[in-house]
Every structure is written in structure tokens, then in C-alpha cells.
Amino acid sequence: MSNETFLGLDFGGTKLLIGEIDSEGSVLRTKKYHSGYMEQDQALNFITQSLDDYFENEKPKPAAMGLGVVGRVDNKQGIWFEMDGLRKGELPIAGMLSRRYGIPCFIDNDVRSAARAELRFGYGKRSQHFIYINVGTGIAAGTVSDGQILTGGHCNAGEVGHTHSGINAGIDCICGRKDCVEMLASGKGLDFCARLYAPRFPDTALKIPNDEKVSVLDIFTMADTDELCKFLVNQAAETLANLLMNMVRVSDPDTIVLGGGVVSDGILLPKIKEKLNSHTMRYVTNGVVLTELKAEHIGLIGACTVAMNL
Ligand SMILES: [Zn+2]
């Protein structure tokens, strides 16, 4: 086994986790840095300041570093195009960081990075045809076919949160379409739907705070006793089941791996499975599973795997 280590930066938009893994994928060291909502150029400053701090006690240097970030990224050119629809730039960040720190640097989108982690250290050991779906604040997927991650012509593959949920609720999405998966089944979507549907369920005990997000855990744990929560969970499960089945028809995976904060506690998974059509799912022989990589580290391991430049 090599003594080389690989540095990863998992940047989720409001916080940054920096850490290292060895060539077997074991996490050796991590350090978390909190930012807030920021523009892309501010994000660059925040990343370099955090790296300066991290490297202060760092000897010897890792073999390479990888950056997993929100938004649209060109992995081959090392360019970060945008954080989201509002925060755009064309930042050649991999080259900038590589020159500044004197080690090779690579970048990819955060969900594709997690799919890389899954490919190298998770279900990829058993499957070369799988889909990794992240259900967190938003929803996106990494599709692996023949051991290769689908990127697309504009580095925009996998934005499956903006496909139709199969439910006609009449909810407008920021992308311009109606009833997108993300509006009904993500953390952001569950918060939105809780507020939208609460007036229909005046007896609900679900807390709907004005100054923070509705707790997804509350929605799940109250689903057996509270009619609003039952409705929200049922709608989210049906949305995700529809998404999974549509994706199965596109890339013919043998495994679907779920990760992200909305599914990681496992409460939603059986409810999704109840709604899957056995004929549609007949070739998904390994089933629908939760990632075995630790939820708090999958983004970091993904970024480190980007550093391995697979
Ligand atoms: Zn949309």
C-alpha cells in the first residue's frame, strides 16, 4: 500500500470540509470551516484562506487535491462555471489552486464526486452500472455506465431534480417547469410543500417556523400520526419512486444507491420501495440501497477521489 495521501475539499455552498484519505479510502484527518451564503469569487477567497490554515501544520504534502463543489463544473478543463442559476462565473480554479499550493488539483461537481466515491470505495466494487442519487437540500444524480460517470456535453448531466415528479400539484419550479422532483421530495421541497399544504390540514402538529426550515425528521417521524406529514411523505416517496423508475429506463442500472440528508436515516426508503413497480425494476438485481459510505464523509471522500483523477 502506498503512503500517499489525497486531499479533498467538500464545498457545499455554506460550509467547507477539508480532509485527507489514504489510497484505501480511509479518512485520516478532517477540518470543517463555516462560511455563509456567498458569491463565487468570495468562495474562492474562502477556500484559499481555509486551505492556508489547513496547510499550516501539514507535512508532508498530499499527492494531489480534489475539489467537490456545488454547481456546474468542467472536470477536464478544471473550470467552475456556476454555483447555481444566480451565481455564475468562469473560474479556472483547479489551475489557480495547483499553482498556489504546488500540487496537482482537480475539480468536479459535488454529486458526481460522491458518485466517484461510490464507484471506487462503495458499491462500485460490486457494480459497474449503477446510479447514485443524492436527496438532500436539492436532488441530483451521478450515473455510472460501464464504470464511467456520465458528464454530458455541457457538464450538466444528472440534474434530475428538474424532471417531472409524475404528480400534478401545479407547483412552479425555479427552472421554469412545474412539479419538478426537487420541489416535492428534497429538503427544500419538503419545507416548501409543508407551508403550501398546511392550511389544508388545520389539525396538524407539525411545527412550521417563520425563521428556519421545517424539520424533515419531524415530518418523517410524525408521518404515522399526523395527516399533513403522512401526505408530505407519501408525495415525496411517490416522487422518488417515479424518479428511480424513470432513471432505470434510461441507463439500465443493476443498483441504485441513495445518499443525502433526506434519505440517510433510512425512514423514507421502505416507503419508496412500496411504490416501485416490480416489472420496471426487474433488472435492478442489487436493489435500491443506502450508501454504505458515512453520510458525513461521502462528499469529502468523493473530493479526494477526484484528486486521484479517475
Ligand atoms: Zn425544476
Q: Shape, please?
A: globular
Domain count: the total is 2
Poorly predicted regions: none
Main β-sheet description = 5 strands, mixed
Would you kindly provide a written description of the structure presented here, covering whatever features stand out?
With 310 residues, the chain is of the alpha/beta class. It has two domains: 5-117 and 297-307, Nucleotidyltransferase, domain 5 (2-Layer Sandwich), CATH 3.30.420; 127-290, Nucleotidyltransferase, domain 5, CATH 3.30.420.40. Helix content is 32%, strand content 22%. The chain has nine helices and 13 strands. It has helices at 40-55, 93-101, 110-121, 181-185, 187-197, 216-221, 227-251, 269-274, 298-307; strands at residues 5-11, 15-22, 27-34, 64-69, 72-74, 79-82, 88-91, 105-109, 130-135, 139-145, 148-149, 255-259, 287-290. Strands 3-2-1-4-8 form a five-stranded mixed β-sheet. Strands 11-10-9-12-13 form a five-stranded mixed β-sheet, sandwiched between helices. The protein is globular and about 60 Å long. It binds zinc ion. Zinc ion binds next to loops.
Set down the secondary structure blueprint.
Blueprint: E1 5-11, E2 15-22, E3 27-34, H1 40-55, E4 64-69, E5 72-74, E6 79-82, E7 88-91, H2 93-101, E8 105-109, H3 110-121, E9 130-135, E10 139-145, E11 148-149, H4 181-185, H5 187-197, H6 216-221, H7 227-251, E12 255-259, H8 269-274, E13 287-290, H9 298-307
Parallel strand pairs: 1-4, 4-8, 9-12, 12-13
Antiparallel strand pairs: 1-2, 2-3, 5-6, 6-7, 9-10, 10-11
Helix pairs in contact: 3-9, 5-7
The structure holds zinc ion (ZN).
